[in-house]
TrEMBL record:
CDD domains recorded: MATE_eukaryotic (cd13132)
Topology relative to the membrane: Multi-pass membrane protein
Name used for this protein in its record: Protein DETOXIFICATION
Intracellular or extracellular location(s): Membrane
GO BP: any one term: xenobiotic detoxification by transmembrane export across the plasma membrane
GO molecular function: antiporter activity; xenobiotic transmembrane transporter activity
GO cellular component: membrane
Swiss-Prot/TrEMBL keywords: Membrane, Transmembrane, Transmembrane helix, Transport
InterPro entries: MATE_euk (IPR045069), MATE_fam (IPR002528)
Length: 499
């Protein structure tokens, strides 16, 4: 009987004789003895498990981080309509530095992810420190910019009362700039090593802390918008301190974190140049939707437009965070596989993550449409605002579906190091097509918020189609070679050179 079993085993492909957890994705995809459909099925089983193991905690991290801003808006909305408008404008303006820091942090994601896949562990800690220094230096001029937020908002044509309240709210957020500088680099350092659960737990604790303290400052201490902003800043610093302690005291990072090093001060300018493309790519994406809020302040009945659009965008952001979780997961997967020299696995990861996120986004859009008449009451009790939100929900549904694809493709771009190219695509689609068309429809043809949103959806659709085409046409063997060259160029043994 043993002979029969042994003979039977010899007739089966090697990859099917082992548990899937012990079989590499590249081995499955490259096994010519398996039928194509069988390879795709086994590959999907492996990849989906890996993606969800990374994406679910990452989704929680981004949902919680976004939820901190949304909860601040909810508390502001229950103070009054002008307070909600002020907090919405304040958060939209502050997304400038959020996008800048998050974008520059994605350079760490590319380098750390590919270095980890190539087993060059010693450079991860150096990249982390180098990026933190660069981001902190970039944060210095941003503090000056936000100090003068009141005259800048007036210059942009926002209502005087709302601008003044928003400037007070922004003042309370200024210390948050340097929390971002540490948080995003530490977050990418952990993600590159597929360590995401601790960040999720820390973020969840920060959200609970923020909600509790905000309730006290608003309803007990009566500190209003300043109290809301101050607690939001404190919560972000709680995340930073907790993540820093976790990295510096945990033995699991003994190969990737060797302590503070003077090597991190080498090549700061070169690192800044490399991360600038990442910053532009992410910033242009994050600012795109926030410009919608700023333009809404110039429409007829700006308070109603701002309130309805900010609620829709808050819902969109919650959905977007799911896609951002897959963005982080696919970035880790593609960068790790490219660093390890596995082109088939990198390609398979890219398309699997895109497909899964797309299906989820359709379900989210349908759920949102089913609750369109009631969902706004989470944020406000105003009936007029609820009606305006309901009318905008079809536009929101289309946005949610597009956001199920576009961020994941951006994650592939980060994993491959295409940030500069995608930045040019974003400029063309968003700022040459989307916003001008939206302004023409909204102001010239008087379609108001619906017109602005229609133009911006057009820009997002155009960008998504371009990224789909570029990903489809990618030579993944060439990307493996590019990853190897990039790691050699950024090897700390010599000063990096620009190409």
């Amino acid at each position: 009987m043993a002979v029969v079993n042994e003979t039977t085993d010899l007739r089966r492909p090697l990859v099917e004789q082992k548990p899937l957890d012990d079989v590499g994705l590249e081995s499955v995809l490259a096994d010519g003895s398996l039928p194509y459909r069988r390879r795709m099925y086994l590959g999907a089983c492996i990849e989906v498990k890996l993606l969800f193991r990374l994406a679910l905690p990452a989704i929680l991290v981004y949902l919680v981080n976004s939820g901190m801003g949304i909860s601040a808006r909810i508390f502001a909305g229950h103070l009054g309509g002008q307070e909600l408008a002020a907090a919405s404008i304040g958060n939209s303006c502050f997304s400038l530095v959020y996008g800048l820091m998050m974008g520059m942090g994605s350079a760490v994601e590319t380098l750390c992810g590919q270095a980890y896949g190539a087993h060059r562990y010693d450079m991860l800690g150096v990249y982390l420190q180098r990026a933190t220094i660069v981001l902190a230096l970039v944060g210095l001029p941003m503090t000056v910019l936000y100090t003068f937020s009141y005259p800048l908002l007036l210059l942009l044509g926002e209502p005087k009362t709302v601008s003044y309240m928003a400037s007070l709210y922004i003042a309370g957020l200024i210390p948050q700039i340097f929390a971002y500088a540490v948080n995003f680099t530490a977050q990418k350092f952990l993600q590159a090593q597929s360590v995401v659960v601790p960040s999720a737990c820390i973020s969840a604790a920060a959200l609970l802390l923020q909600i509790s303290l905000t309730w006290i400052t608003v309803y007990v201490m009566d500190l209003g918008l300043m109290g809301i902003a101050s607690v939001l800043t404190i919560s972000w610093w709680f995340i930073v301190v907790a993540q820093t302690l976790y990295i510096t005291t945990n033995q699991r990072f003994r190969h990737t974190w060797a302590g503070l090093s003077w090597r991190s001060f080498h090549g700061l300018w070169s690192f800044f140049q490399f991360s600038a493309g990442s910053a532009v790519m992410i910033c242009l994406e994050l600012w795109y939707s926030q410009i919608l809020v700023l333009l809404a302040g110039l429409l007829k009945d700006p308070a109603l437009s701002l309130d309805s659009l900010s609620i829709c965008l808050s819902i969109s952001v919650l959905s977007f965070m799911v896609s951002i979780g897959f963005n982080a997961a696919v970035s880790v997967r593609t960068s790790n596989e490219l660093g390890a020299g596995n082109p088939k696995s990198a390609m398979f990861s890219a398309w699997t993550a895109t497909s899964v996120s797309f299906v989820i986004s359709i379900a989210e859009a349908l759920a949102m449409l089913a609750s369109r008449d009631y969902i706004s009451y989470i944020f406000t009790a105003d009936v007029d605002v609820a009606k305006a939100v309901s009318e905008l929900c079809p536009f929101l549904a289309v946005t949610i579906i597009l956001n199920g694809i576009q961020p994941v493709l951006s994650g592939v771009a980060v994993g491959c190091g295409w940030q500069t190219y995608v930045a040019y695509v974003n400029i063309s689609c968003y700022y040459i097509v989307g916003i001008p068309v939206g302004c023409i429809l909204g102001f010239t043809f008087d379609f108001q918020a619906k017109g602005i949103w229609t133009g911006m959806i057009g820009g997002t659709l155009m960008q998504t189609l371009i990224l789909l085409y570029v990903t489809y046409r990618t030579d993944w063997d060439k990307e493996v070679e590019e990853a190897r060259k990039r790691l050699d160029m950024w090897d700390d043994k010599k000063e990096p050179r620009q190409t």
